Amino acid sequence: MSANPFIESEDQEQLRATARAVIARHAPQRDVRIWDEEGSYPEHLYREIAKLGWYDIVADDEPLDGMAGLLIALCEEVGRASSDLVALLNLNISGIRDLIRWGTVEQQEKYAEPVLRGDGRFSIAVSEPDVGSDAASVATTAERVEGGWLLNGQKTYCEGAGIPGTVMELFAKTGDSGRKRDDLAVFLVPSDHPGVEIRRMPALGRNISGIYEVFLHDVLVPDEALLGEPGQGWQILKERLVLERIMISSGFLGSVGQVLDMTVEYANEREQFGKTISSYQGVTLPLAEMFVRKDAARCAVQRSAAFFDAGLPCETESTMAKFLCGQIYAEASALAVQLQGAYGYVRDHTLPMHHSDGIIARVVAGPPSVQLNFIARSMGLRGN
């Protein structure tokens, strides 16, 4: 990464240019709109991503120099097509990182190699009907039995879990020691494993990846399915979330950029009362303010990436970046629909998709209230 985090390195610029060309060819707006409407997964795109070696950014035992900086450039360009495509990319990248960090050589060969080839993919199963931000309180159980572990329970809001070839990183409790975090473990469970039932949940957005419920009925997995050791689940999740927030935040920035570009083009062409609507301050000033906020949010993402690449703690910084980017994506897409009127509401283009996906952007990887509470604690504010 460049010595100045706000100036891209040559590697970042090259990756950004390549990513922009690849997305233009393999994920044009017309196709993305159809994928979203049909709820279809673009397997060819992720095969191309694997072929280009983008997963290799995180696949080495030693972190690549400037890794986070490269990922934010990549995710922003993919995000211009769809934040949902970034979510799928993030699941694969995060899964590979988890396997490299916590997995055995055999697990890496069995679960990570198919993703690196473009044949497989990862999902994550943490949330449950009664468990959201309090991830340590999962009720799904993992009981040690002869031949491995027996899993029982239910997971919800598992993005991409129903896509063929998916392996879930599934969080379950292995006991009741009294300290919930110490009982958390991660299991690598293929979505088509015996005893696993997958149901797609009708949702307002995120239709390309799909959101799924997962039901576990006496699912027997071998000892080799355990990632790390029993009790390391909380640490795996906590370490994962920092880079995950940085990546998805950058993806949101790309989506905001696309939404603003679409709206500027519309405003310059649409005429009312004898003038283009870009002549009216009621249109131009809100768009200008969104542009300023997007640029400020990008600085927060770049700072988080620079801290991460320098090996510095950045949980607070990544949380602030995610808060800012999720908020602005939701607000920018809503503003764009408002300014484009009826045209912004019809599905002739991807703006309705961005509006739907922008709503959930505020919630994924931690809702605003939880993020602000964490930031407040980092400021030194203490509750009773």
TrEMBL record:
Its cofactor is FAD. Residues 124-219 form the Acyl-CoA oxidase/dehydrogenase middle domain. Residues 231-379 form the Acyl-CoA dehydrogenase/oxidase C-terminal domain. The keyword Flavoprotein applies. GO terms for molecular function: acyl-CoA dehydrogenase activity; flavin adenine dinucleotide binding. Keywords: FAD, Flavoprotein, Oxidoreductase. Residues 9-119 form the Acyl-CoA dehydrogenase/oxidase N-terminal domain. It comes from the Bacteria. Pfam families: Acyl-CoA_dh_1 (PF00441), Acyl-CoA_dh_M (PF02770), Acyl-CoA_dh_N (PF02771). InterPro entries: Acyl-CoA_dehydrogenase, Acyl-CoA_Oxase/DH_mid-dom, Acyl-CoA_Oxase/DH_mid-dom_sf, AcylCo_DH-like_C, AcylCo_DH/oxidase_C, AcylCoA_DH/ox_N, AcylCoA_DH/ox_N_sf, AcylCoA_DH/oxidase_NM_dom_sf. One of its GO terms (biological process) is fatty acid beta-oxidation using acyl-CoA dehydrogenase. One of its GO terms (cellular component) is cytoplasm. Belongs to the acyl-CoA dehydrogenase family. This is Acyl-CoA dehydrogenase. It comes from Streptomyces fagopyri.
